[in-house]
């Protein structure tokens, strides 16, 4: 997959032996036009470091392709019956392909499996976008997991074995995938290259209005888990 190995580069910066012309980027081009009002041109692949001047894609470029062949980039979404994984699954989906498509489909899964006004859409989408942008893409068999329970949503991001929750909260974290993060910023999915825990907490806590924090962070088996409580709405 890699054209050359460069240990000094982040995973998304490494140039592959795959070329721009071998893939479709309809989702990226359509979303870029929608969010910026501009056409995504061939020069933009180089501008955003999705490819080099010879047309060879970086790993980031491959991940934004509609027919992205990198297997370890999926999002697993599950709606559980109850408050734990020992209960039955009410809905279960696996999304792959373009990172943009994964984000959109995971957010649609959330909307289809939650009650209106029990969560901040901004908080959920921001958490999902950051999980996709900052996850570890090097290791097969580890995926972003989006678990909806009766009382909360847990979003798990792989690759945080060296980080404790306080490092993330205090923004003491390196940007693992700068190309992906910067394009997500351009598309308006995230605001910064950290995990935006402060924004997620502020948007979630607005749903409760009780001066308490309703977002928790855990590090479990090298996954950073952002747990967002469900607001109890009186109908």
Characterization of the model:
The protein has two domains: 11-63, no CATH class; 75-229, Heat Shock Protein 90 (2-Layer Sandwich). The protein has eight helices and eight strands. The protein has helices at 26-36, 42-47, 59-63, 99-112, 121-134, 165-169, 178-186, 197-205, and strands at 15-19, 56-58, 75-80, 89-95, 144-148, 152-158, 215-220, 223-229. A hairpin with a 3-residue loop joins strand 5 and strand 6. The longest helix has 14 residues, at 99-112.
Structural features:
two-stranded antiparallel ribbon, six-stranded mixed β-sheet, 20% strand, alpha+beta, Heat Shock Protein 90, 8 helices, 235 residues
How are the elements arranged and paired?
Layout: E1 15-19, H1 26-36, H2 42-47, E2 56-58, H3 59-63, E3 75-80, E4 89-95, H4 99-112, H5 121-134, E5 144-148, E6 152-158, H6 165-169, H7 178-186, H8 197-205, E7 215-220, E8 223-229
Helix pairs in contact: 4-5, 5-7, 5-8
Quick rundown:
By secondary structure, this protein is of the alpha+beta class. 31% of the residues lie in helices and 20% in strands.
Strand content: 15-25%
Question: Which second-level CATH architecture of the largest domain applies?
Answer: 2-Layer Sandwich
- What separation lies between the terminal Cα atoms? 54 Å
**CATH topology of the largest domain, which one?**
Heat Shock Protein 90
Summarize the biggest pleated sheet.
6 strands, mixed
